[in-house]
Design a protein that fits this description.
By secondary structure, the chain is an alpha+beta fold. It has two domains: 1-67, no CATH class; 68-101. The protein has two helices and four strands, in the order ββββαα. Strands 1-2-3-4 form a four-stranded antiparallel sheet. The chain is elongated. Bound molecules: zinc ion. Residues 4, 6-7, 9, 24, 26-27, 29 line the site of zinc ion. This is DNA-directed RNA polymerase subunit M. Residues 54-73 are annotated as: Disordered. Residues 60-69 have a biased composition (Basic and acidic residues). It holds the Pfam family Zn_ribbon_RPB9.
């Protein structure tokens, strides 16, 4: 993130003619956008975009599940039963071993 040398305002990439420049939000001071700065800003932009996509897909998934809630609930119960049995088995085996010693 770059800051304006005049007032310390945040410099944001802006399109000017066909070039991209960094412009201060407060006073409009402009600075040429070099490769390094551009890369840094692009990484931040990409992160925000992917975050938004993730949120949207999660919401739509939940909406879709509402209609088949029962089905989903059953699947989940069976899954937890399996996992729970495995965990229980491990615990029993572990305690048996320690009892013998
Ligand atoms: Zn400024």
């Amino acid at each position: 993130m770059r800051f304006c040398p005049k007032d310390g305002g945040i410099m944001l990439p802006t399109k000017k003619d066909d070039k991209e420049v960094l412009r201060c939000k407060k006073c409009g001071y402009e600075e040429p956008l070099d490769r390094k700065a551009k890369k840094a800003y692009q990484i931040k932009e990409n992160k925000t975009k992917s975050g938004k996509v993730l949120t949207t897909s999660v919401v739509s998934e939940r909406e879709g599940r509402k209609r088949e809630d029962d089905e989903w609930e059953q699947e989940r119960e069976e899954y937890y039963k399996e996992v729970g049995l495995d965990l229980l088995r491990d615990e029993l085996e572990g305690s048996e071993e320690s009892d013998e010693e």
